[in-house]
Amino acid sequence: GITAIEENAPPAAALELVSVNSVVSELVRMALGTLITPNKVNVQIDLNPDVPPLPLQKDLLKQVLFNLAKNAVEAMNAGGHLKFITRLVEVDGRRLVEIEVADTGPGLPASVTSRLFEPLASDKGGDHAGLGLTISRGLVERMSGQISCTSTPQGTHFLIRLPTLHPSQAQLAATRYGSM
Fold first, then answer.
1. pLDDT at residue 177 is higher than 60
2. Pairing label, strands 155-163, 94-103
3. Taking the mean position of all CA atoms in its chain, how far away is CA 27?
4. 2 or 165: which carries more pLDDT confidence?
């Protein structure tokens, strides 16, 4: 399903103020019985309550996070730990929401990380098209964000950074989208 998003992209849906923490919680609940628990993966969520709602398309964020979770679980074929963290950070004077997805898998070789977000960079074999991270990056960029990855033999960490509303935009957004 993730490969069809770009090919058959519907017209841009209206943005809504979305609680990133709620999206993470909903994703974990959704994936617990089908993806996480059956694969002997423990999950931890550390959600910063100060993370503000963001103007975005909820389903796009959920799709990116699900893809990262699925990749992490597949990397930990003997089980392991999956962690979701949200936080507020300031980078170059801009407030950003960070979403970290970290696993305790074997990590990725440098040859893979150097081309991680390129199409067909999958080393998984089978029916893996190698498009998931390319599409995930495109979806994050559509949300005006960035995605990055660091990997060591102790695990892999994906970091998504999404811009917050500027304080002057917050009142306008609350008026336009309603408060949450």
1. no
2. antiparallel
3. 10
4. 165
Partner residues linked to 95 by β-bridges: 90
Note the pTM of the prediction, 2 decimals. 0.82
- Residues 33-76 have pLDDT tens digits of 999 999 999 999 999 999 999 999 999 999 999 999 999 999 99
Q: How far is CA 119 from CA 62, 123, 130, 147, in A?
A: 21, 12, 6, 15
User: Which residues, including other chains, have CB under 8 Å from residue 39's CB and lie 6 or more apart?
Assistant: 73, 76, 77, 79
Q: Say if residues 164 and 96 touch (Cβ distance below 8 Å).
A: yes
| Residues 18 and 58 sit within 8 Å (Cβ to Cβ) | yes
The distance between the two most distant Cα atoms of the chain, rounded to a whole number of Å, is 50
* Chain length of the chain: 180
The b/e string for 56-78 (b: 16+ C-beta within 10 A; e otherwise) is bbbebbbbbbbbbbebbbebbee
